[in-house]
Amino acid sequence: MTQPFPFSAIVGQEAMKQAMVLTAIDPGIGGVLVFGDRGTGKSTAVRALAALLPPISVVEGCPVNAARIEDCPDWAPPPSGRIIARPTPVIDLPLGATEDRVVGALDIERALTRGEKAFEPGLLARANRGYLYIDEVNLLEDHIVDLLLDVAQSGENVVEREGLSIRHAARFVLVGSGNPEEGELRPQLLDRFGLSVEVRSPRDIETRVEVMRRRDAYEHANAAFMKRWRAQDARLRKAILAAREALPGLKTPGAVLHDCAALCIALGSDGLRGELTLLRAARAQAAFEGAASVTRAHLKAVAPSALSHRLRRDPLDEAGAGTRVARTLEEVLP
Amino acid sequence: MEPLSPWARIETALALLAVDPAGVRGLWLRARAGPLRDRITAALPRGARKLHPGVEDAALFGGVDLVATLAQGRVVAAQGLLAVPGMLMLAMAERCPPGLAGRLAQVLDAPGFALVALDEGAEADEGLPPALADRLGLFLDPGDLAWAETAEIRLDGEEVAAARARLADLTVPREALARLARAAAAMGIPSLRAPLLAAAVARAHAAWRGAAAVAEPDLQVAAELVLAHRARILPEEAAPPDQPPPPAPEPGDPGAQTKADPAPPEDILLDAARAALPADLLARLATLRQVRAGSGSGGTGAARKGNHRGRPLSPQPGRPQSGRRIDLVATLRAAAPWQALRRPEGAQAGRLSLAIRAADIRLKRYEETSDRVLIFAVDASGSSALARLAEAKGAVELLLAQAYARRDHVALIAFRKQAAELVLPPTRSLVQTKRRLAGLAGGGGTPLAAGLRLALTVALQARARGMTPTVALLTDGRGNVGLDGSPGRAQAEEDAQRIARALRASTVPALVIDIANRPQPALGALAQMMAAPYLALPRADAQKLSAVLSQALGG
Predict the structure, then answer these.
(1) DSSP string spanning A17-62?
(2) What is the pTM of this model?
(3) ipTM (interface predicted TM)
(4) Is B247 within 8 Å of A96 when comparing Cβ atoms?
C-alpha cells in the first residue's frame, strides 16, 4: 500500500486544511463538510489528514477499536488482550450502502451455519475513534442520513432488530463532501456538521500548475517527493499534538463569549449549536497558534466555516452564505 | 500537426489505453451497440472484468459465498471483482446508479485500476455519472462515422509492450504540465483531474510513438482526447484578456518560477481540442445540468422497489446479498415442509434442529413510491388570454387525465394583473382541478416573475414533503410586471431572470411552453437560464401540445 498524498503538499485550499486540522485537535467540534467542484482534492485531504495523525492504540481484534480491554463490547469474540498501535481509521461510507452495512446486523452466515446469534459490526463500529468519510453526502439516501444523525449526536450505535439488542460506542468525526450543483443537503444534516468549507478550483494558472507538478511528482518520483514533505508533515503533527495538550488549559475570557453570542444573534443562526461550535473551533484555533487565551482574532478566523451553513436559507440570495457571514463579521466585530 | 481524423483518434485512444491503463484511468466510449462499437471494443485489452449497472456489493468486494457455505457447513469466502487491480468494463454505463458510481470512483482513485465505460445513452440527457466522467481519461464518440471510414484495429502486442517499457523513463516536462493546465483553464474545466489525466495521456502517447521526450504532438493528442469533451466554454469565447491576471505566486512556493508567456502557445492545443469538440456542445451543456440534477437515477418519481422501507410486498426467494433483509418467518415457512425429509437418519428425536437450505431463504421486499407533482404555472394575462389561453387550458386538461391515471399530484398557479395566485394546491382531485381551470379568467398584465416564484415555492414545499416536483410554465413571455407588482418591462425581466436562476439552482426540473403567436427569443433565453426544455408551439392543437408535454416530462 502506497503512502497517501502528504497533507502539507496540498496546494492552497487553506480553509479546508484549517477546518480539518481543527477537528483533529478537537474532535468534539463535530465534523467537516466540504462542498465544491470535483477534482479539488477533497478526498485527498481526508486521507492525508488521517495519515498525518499519530496512530491510536487499540485492543487487538476489537471491532470498535477500543483503547482498553474493558471497553471491548461483550458481543465480540474475546480479545487477545494485546494492545497494538494502528493508524487512525478512515472509513468510507459509499452511496447506496444499506442500513445493515452501516449499523451492523445479524451475522446471517453464522446464524445459519452454526446456529449462533452473532452480531456483524457495520461501518459505524469500524469508524469509532476515527473518521467517517462520506463522498457525495448530498446524494445519500434519507434513511441513512437519519441513522447517521442519530449516532453522530449520541456517540453510540444502538441496534435493536432481528432479535438482537446491541450497543457500542461510535464516536467519529464525520467528513462529508459533495457538489452542491447535484443536490442539496437537508438542513438537519447541515447543522450537524461542525464546520463547513467551500472549495473551488484554483482560478489562477500558476496554482493549478503547481498542483499538477506535485501530483506528477507524487506519482512518478514518489520516494523523493515523500521525503521532501515528510518533515513538514511531522511539524504539523507536532503542532496538532501540542495543541491537543494545550486545549484544556486555555482561558476563555467573558468578552469572547459575548462576541460569540452577538455574532450568532446578528446572523440569526438557528439554535445554540452555532455558538458552541464557534467557541470550540476558536479554542482549537487558539491552541494551534499557541496562544494562552482565546481572542477575537481567533473567533474571526473560524467564524466563516463555523457559521456559514447555519444561516436560514434564502433561495433568492445569490451572494452566498459566506459573504453574509463576512459582512456581519465586519459589522459586529470590527 | 493536423488534428487526427475521427477514426485515427479512436485507434490512438485504444493504443494509449493498452500502453498505460493505470495512468489514463480508462475510456468513456459513447456508442450504441453495433458493429462499429464491436470493432472498437475488439481492440480493447483482453481480460477486462465485466460489470453491469446492477452489480451488487458482494460481487464487487467479495463476501461470503452463501450457497457454498451452507453446503459445506463452513464459511466459504468469494473473491470480489475488485480484489485485484486491473481493467474493468462497465456495460450500459448510462444506467449506472450513483451508488455504484461512487464505489467505482473510489476504486479508480486507487492505483492500478482502469475502467472502460460503455455508454449507450440515446438521449442527450443520458450519460455517465459525473463522478466517473471526471475520472476516466479518454473519451470517444464515433457518432455517425461511416463503416467505410473504419478499419479493423490491430494492436501489435510487442509494440505495446515496448511502449510500456519506454514509459518508465518518460517524464512530462514542467512547461508541458503548465500548458495543459492553461488549456484546461481556457476551456473552463474546473476539475484538476483533467489536466493531470491529459499529462498521463501525453506521456503514454510519447511512449507509443517511441519518442524520447514528451513533445508538441503528444500534448495535442492529449488535448483532443482528454480535454475537449470536458469543455464548459467554447475556447473561442475564452480569449486570454478575459482571464484574471495570475496573482503573485504564493511565497515559499517552490517551483513557481514560470511566468505567463507573452504569446501563449496554448492556441495550438486549443485548436487541437476544438477539432474534437462535439458539434452540439452548447446544446449539451444545457442538458448536462439536468443529468446532474437527476443524479443518474432514471424514472423520477416512479415507484422504486426498495428493500428497506415502504409498503411491504410479498417476500421473494433469493440470496441475502448486499444487505437485503431476510424474512425469517417466510424462510421458516418455506423450510418447514421439508424438515422430516431432511432430518439425517439417526438424529435424536428430542433435539430441535432446523435444516435450512439456500433455496428456502426468503427476502423482505418493500415498495416505496415518491409521488410526482406537476405544477402548472399558467399565464392568464390579457395578451395571453387573447391568443392561446383556451388552448393551454385544453392541453393542461389532457395532461391532467394522464396525471390522474398515474396518480400524480397536480398544482395550478395562475399569474395575471399584479400577482400570482395558487389556484389549486397540490392535489389528486381531477374534478376540482378541472373546475378551477375552467373558471380561470384572463386579463391584465403579466407578472411572470411572481408566477415563477410561486411555482418555485410550491415545488420546494412539495419536495420537502418527499414528492418529486416538475414545473411547467405556459406563457407568452412578455413579462411586464415586477416582483413588487409595479409595472415596468426592464424590472420585470430582471426579476424573472433572477427567479429563473434560483429555479435552476434548486434543480427542480422545469419545462417552458411558449404560447405566443410567434416564438419569443427572450423566453427561449429564460428557459435556458432555468435549464429547462423550451417548446415553441405556435398554433398547435391541444392534443399535440399534450403529446409533446408528456414526452418532455418523461411520460
Answers:
(1) HHHHHHHHH-GGG--EEEEE-TTSSHHHHHHHHHHHSPPEEEETT-
(2) 0.65
(3) 0.72
(4) no
